[in-house]
Inverse folding.
């Protein structure tokens, strides 16, 4: 700031106006930059979430496929198990092992209520 | 100085103007671009929006088909009786096959199909042909490894019955396209059948991946599973003993039914000859028939329990009243009737049933009168469908009362001259067991949608009351005598008091117009225990060649079925429970005290 220009009140006012305008431009520029950064950040956030959704979708598809395979396997194993433990098979296996149903004298039924009371 | 300052001001002014100009140019350029972009957006979004949207839809969305698996059939404990397995079928696109000869050669070796047959299909004019449907996983893998042009695979469901012949007549079977053809599979095909829906799914740029399309809420996909009242073990016991009785007597077939008299639930329904629904085509069609609901037969002496029930309920006679049984022969309208168990003189009403006197039954029938007797037959549900959820149920045949003469009434009194089905017979017998209530028999316990909603749940349904509690008790006591000292001694179950009635009916020969002297239907219907019965069991053996009496062939089968089923259900004789209590008490006393 030059002293000679400070001598007249008019020049000082112009200098003040210019300085205020510059400050406001700087502030405005700052606001623009901030807006731009916010815009970029929100754009990034938007894109990031979109990409994340797509990625999660892919993961879901993969996991769903794996789940379906496991469920199918589980189902088939259950059916296989039930096929093996059919009454006919169990009785046949029992026969092969020389097992027989217990006679009435070999059975001691226990009342369900655990009390020695008649049903 | 002032000039220098002026020049500086001018330069600054010029610089500012230049700056404004450049800013203006940049603004205009940006504005222009912005306007261009805006115009393009307007063009894309508003003017061509619909068209472009449809292009995008077409690119990212695909119409996909989802086929649900055919519903399962379970036993009462949730064990699988009928399931659908995913299998692969081999198909061909003849136009794409470069070397049909080589392809046929390779496929023939793996699939064990005649090469000429495959070649004929591969050289045909159709765009798509089946090579073999539902191949084994190992066959599918071997064919895939060949990487043949024009040979593809389609995933299909195959119905599988893990228990093979068990309850096959109840479950029935489904055809190659998973359509129900017999039994529950047929009757409830509408609930069980697989459903197919088309839906829009999202795919990626490669056109492969489908993003999470949730179909769980799609109502069209809610096919049903069916839970039966049949218990696999009770069914097995019934089938095992029925087969034993049928084979042991060289019979043509048979039926065994186990019912809970309190609810009308069928625990087991066995029919012989048997078949395996996995390979049902390998068995004769006659073996597919569920005789428990479709067999019309003359019940013979088992029917006397209904006659006596009617007589006692109408108070025509008491249990102790005696009738003269004519020494074994009795003529009605020039037709001679005989007793087969002996030449009886005076018999009480109770003993008429105990010793199964036909003449005594005829006299009781005459006393009751044909109108009342026919009323009771109708009340017991004979001549009508029981409403059980099984296909092919017969109604039996009760002759019209108007055309019935005394000879017919005499025959009807001991279970001839009419026909019933096993399910009718056991349902009516259950009414005696439960104190006089005719229950609607049911074999389907529950129908559940795949999302867990219960579509149908069977509840015990009383059709009507057919007799008073006191009458039912008296008839049960008479039936206990049948087992204790009468024709049904083979039906005894150690530890239990059993009530029952034997039946040996001659089969009517339509060719000669007379009853056969060599062909019979042996039957036994009974309850266990006799007081507050838990089970009603009916055994019918069709045309036994040896030991054709109901007491000889059907009663022992009843004994095994009833005894083993009671043990399976953990219903023990009271004396066993008391012994268990004593042993446990003894052990309890001998246990050392806790520290």
């Amino acid at each position: 700031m030059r002293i000679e220009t400070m001598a007249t009140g008019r020049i000082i006012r112009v200098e003040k106006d210019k300085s205020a305008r510059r400050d406001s431009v700087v502030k405005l520029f700052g606001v623009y930059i901030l807006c731009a950064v916010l815009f970029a950040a929100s754009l990034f956030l938007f894109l990031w979430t979109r990409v994340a959704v797509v990625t999660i979708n892919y993961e879901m598809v993969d996991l769903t496929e794996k789940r379906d395979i496991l469920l199918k396997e589980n189902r088939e194993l259950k059916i296989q198990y039930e096929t093996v433990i059919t009454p006919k098979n169990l009785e046949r296996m029992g026969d092969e092992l020389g097992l027989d149903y217990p006679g009435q004298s070999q059975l001691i039924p226990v009342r369900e209520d655990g009390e020695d009371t008649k049903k | 100085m002032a000039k220098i300052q002026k020049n500086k001001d001018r330069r600054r002014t010029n610089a500012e103007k230049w700056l404004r100009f450049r800013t203006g140019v940049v603004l205009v350029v940006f504005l222009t671009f912005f306007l261009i972009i805006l115009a393009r957006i307007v063009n894309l979004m508003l003017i061509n929006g619909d068209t472009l949207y449809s292009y995008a839809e077409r690119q990212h969305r695909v119409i996909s088909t989802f086929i649900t698996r055919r519903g399962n059939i379970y036993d009462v404990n949730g064990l699988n009786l009928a399931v659908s397995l995913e299998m692969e079928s081999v198909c061909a696109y003849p136009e794409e096959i470069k070397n049909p000869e080589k392809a046929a050669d390779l496929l023939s070796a793996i699939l064990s199909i005649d090469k000429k047959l495959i070649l004929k299909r591969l050289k045909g004019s159709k765009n798509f042909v089946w090579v073999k449907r539902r191949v084994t996983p190992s066959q599918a893998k071997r064919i895939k490894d060949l990487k043949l042009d024009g040979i593809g695979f389609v995933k299909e469901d195959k119905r599988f019955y893990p228990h093979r012949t068990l309850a096959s007549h109840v479950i029935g079977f489904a055809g190659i396209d998973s359509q129900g053809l017999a039994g529950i599979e047929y009757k409830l095909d509408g609930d069980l059948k697989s459903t197919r829906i088309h839906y829009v799914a999202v795919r990626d740029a490669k056109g492969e991946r489908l993003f999470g399309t949730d179909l769980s809420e799609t109502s069209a996909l809610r096919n049903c599973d069916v839970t039966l009242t049949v218990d696999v073990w009770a069914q097995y016991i019934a089938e095992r003993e029925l087969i034993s009785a049928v084979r042991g007597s060289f019979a043509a077939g048979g039926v065994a039914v186990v019912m809970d008299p309190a609810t009308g639930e069928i625990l087991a329904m066995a029919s012989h000859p048997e078949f395996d629904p996995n390979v049902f085509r390998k068995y004769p069609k006659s073996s597919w028939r569920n005789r428990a609901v479709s067999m019309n037969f003359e019940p013979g002496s088992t029917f006397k329990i209904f006659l006596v029930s009617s007589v006692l309920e109408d108070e025509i006679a008491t249990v102790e009243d005696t009738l003269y049984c004519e020494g074994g022969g009795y003529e009605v309208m020039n037709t001679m009737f005989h007793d087969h168990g002996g030449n009886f003189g005076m018999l009480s009403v109770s003993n008429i049933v105990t010793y199964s006197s036909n003449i005594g039954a005829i006299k009781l029938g005459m006393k009751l009168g044909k109108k009342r007797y026919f009323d009771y037959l109708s009340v017991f549900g004979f001549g009508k469908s029981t409403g059980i959820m099984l296909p092919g149920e017969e109604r039996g045949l009760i002759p019209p009362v108007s055309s019935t003469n005394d000879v017919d009434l005499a025959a009807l009194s001991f279970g001839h001259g009419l026909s019933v089905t096993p399910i009718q017979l056991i349902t009516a017998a259950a009414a005696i067991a439960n104190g006089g209530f005719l229950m609607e028999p049911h074999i389907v316990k529950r129908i559940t949608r795949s999302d867990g909603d219960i579509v149908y749940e069977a509840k015990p349904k009383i059709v009507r009351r057919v007799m008073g509690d006191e009458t039912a008790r008296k008839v049960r006591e008479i039936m206990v005598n049948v087992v204790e000292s009468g024709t049904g001694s083979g039906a005894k179950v150690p530890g239990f008091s059993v009530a029952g009635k034997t039946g040996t009916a001659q089969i009517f020969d339509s060719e000669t117009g007379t009853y056969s002297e060599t062909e019979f239907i042996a039957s036994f219907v009974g309850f266990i225990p006799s007081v507050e019965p838990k089970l009603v069991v009916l055994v019918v053996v069709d045309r036994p060649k040896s030991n054709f009496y109901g007491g000889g062939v059907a009663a022992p089968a009843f004994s095994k079925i009833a005894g083993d089923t009671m043990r399976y259900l953990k219903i023990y004789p009271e004396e066993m429970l008391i012994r268990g209590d004593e042993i446990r008490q003894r052990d309890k006393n001998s246990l050392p005290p806790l520290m």
About this structure: The longest helix of chain B spans residues 2-47. Chain B has a mean pLDDT of 90. Chain B has 19 helices and 23 strands.
